[in-house]
């Protein structure tokens, strides 16, 4: 007997614009303090999302590779980085304050705030070939990469891993889907600057 197809998650188009802060996993550790917030009514558990984000930020192939930097989640007090998962309408509204048109489809970063579009978090991207968990890792790595000062990059050559700083949702240009800034040997998976 074959498994039944999975029903795609319900993604509300808009929400109240209020957020619940993830509390599980918060610590007073060193490194870059960040907070995870999830829009109310989105259907995403803030603590579960925060656990996934913490794994991405601590991954050896991520921005913490080889001890280059560390991150710790906070639930209150100052945070130099705030990662918000929000409905498409809320994401659009917040991103528009920075003159970015996200078309109900994509994420953005405004100073210390990363806006993760709920649609992308829940359904991935048709351009990304891999599991949803990998696409979520790409979202985190791409937007945190901007927060760290990295600009957009493009495909370095046919068949090579797409840079995490490439806007992979708009097509891979001959590269293969990739969620991580570094390979397993610690080599940066970059590409030419995209203007």
Order of helices and strands: EEHEEHEEHH
Distance between the terminal alpha carbons, to the nearest Å? 50 Å
List low-confidence stretches. Answer: 1-5
Largest sheet: 6 strands, mixed
> Structural class, from secondary structure content?
alpha/beta
General shape: globular
Assigned CATH class of one domain: Alpha Beta
Averaged pLDDT = 93
Q: Tell me the helix content.
A: 10-25%
Number of helices: 4
Architecture per CATH nomenclature, i.e. the level-2 architecture of one domain: 3-Layer(aba) Sandwich
CATH topology of one domain: Collagenase (Catalytic Domain)
The gyration radius over C-alpha positions equals: 16 Å
Strand content: 5-15%
* Number of extended strands: 6
Write a brief caption for the model.
The protein has 195 residues and is of the alpha/beta class. It is 23% helix and 14% strand.
Verbal overview:
The protein has about 200 residues and is of the alpha/beta class. The protein has a domain of about 130 residues: 3-Layer(aba) Sandwich (Collagenase (Catalytic Domain)), CATH 3.40.390. The protein is built from 4 helices and 6 strands; from the N terminus they run E-E-H-E-E-H-E-E-H-H. Strands 1, 2, 3, 4, 5 and 6 form a 6-stranded mixed sheet that branches. Helix 1 crosses helix 4. About 40% of the residues are buried. The N terminus is likely disordered.
List the helices and strands and how they pair.
Blueprint: E1 19-21, E2 32-39, H1 46-58, E3 71-73, E4 81-86, H2 88-96, E5 108-110, E6 113-117, H3 118-123, H4 132-147
Parallel strand pairs: 2-3, 2-4, 4-6
Antiparallel strand pairs: 1-2, 5-6
């Amino acid at each position: 007997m074959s498994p039944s197809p999975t029903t795609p998650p319900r993604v509300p188009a808009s929400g109240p614009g209020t957020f619940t802060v993830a509390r599980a996993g918060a610590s007073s550790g060193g490194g870059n303090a960040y907070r995870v917030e999830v829009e109310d009514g989105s259907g995403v558990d803030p603590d579960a999302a925060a656990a996934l984000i913490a794994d991405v930020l601590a991954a050896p192939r991520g921005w913490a590779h080889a001890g280059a930097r560390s991150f710790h989640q906070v639930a209150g007090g100052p945070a130099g980085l705030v990662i918000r998962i929000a409905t498409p309408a809320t994401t659009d509204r917040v991103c528009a304050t920075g003159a970015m048109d996200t078309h109900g489809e994509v994420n953005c970063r405004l100073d210390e705030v990363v806006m993760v579009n709920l649609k992308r978090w829940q359904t991935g991207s048709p351009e990304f070939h891999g599991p949803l968990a990998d696409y979520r890792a790409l979202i985190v790595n791409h937007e945190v990469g901007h927060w760290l000062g990295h600009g957009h990059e493009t495909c370095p050559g046919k068949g090579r891993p797409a840079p995490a700083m490439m806007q992979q949702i708009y097509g891979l240009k001959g590269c293969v889907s990739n969620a991580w800034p570094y390979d397993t040997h610690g080599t940066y998976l970059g590409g030419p600057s995209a203007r």
